[in-house]
Amino acid sequence: MVKKNKNVPSNPNTLGIVGHLIISNKQIHKYQLSLLNNYLNSISIKYQETVVADILSGSTNAISFSKSLDAFHGESSDVQRALFYLCVSIAYADNQYIDEKERFLLKKISKQTTLSTEEKEKIENEAIANAMEFRDDNNNL
């Protein structure tokens, strides 16, 4: 029997929160895409098969942030934890800080989790540290 990865969203629309976070400041950075692809590879999902691809391409068929957020709310705590971590990492990785627009969306995402305040703070700190290290490791000229 194949064991299901506990970080795979049960609703494919959930990943839309990541796409909307990436485009929130009208910039798409290579670090953000690399972090996203690392996550997608870890759960065996192809980028082209996600709602994120529609969002980043500017498709008129792209799912709204509110619908993505509703889907995220219905996910397991494992998926919420993994995606909250990814979102914080992605928000920090682009410019090495979390800007106002990203912070606004992160607060909305945070409110939809079933995670405790302490756990969310711990995830934020770990995700920021990971994003800093990721940028250092992948900073190629």
Description:
With 141 residues, the chain is mainly α. The protein has one domain: TerB-like (Orthogonal Bundle). It has seven helices and no strands.
The total domain count is 1
How confident overall, as mean pLDDT? 92
Distance between the termini: 45 Å
Instruction: Could you tell me the CATH topology label.
Output: TerB-like
Q: What ranges have pLDDT less than 50 throughout 5 or more consecutive residues?
A: none
Q: What general outline do the C-alpha atoms trace?
A: globular
Q: How many runs of DSSP E, i.e. beta strands?
A: 0
Estimated radius of gyration = 14 Å
The SS-based structural class is mainly alpha
What CATH architecture would you give?
Answer: Orthogonal Bundle
In CATH's first tier, which class applies? Mainly Alpha
The fraction of residues in strands falls at: under 5%
DSSP helix count? 7
Secondary structure layout:
Elements: H1 16-23, H2 30-42, H3 51-57, H4 65-73, H5 77-95, H6 100-111, H7 117-137
Helix pairs in contact: 1-3, 1-5, 1-6, 2-5, 5-6, 5-7
Which terms summarize this structure?
TerB-like, 141 residues, mainly alpha
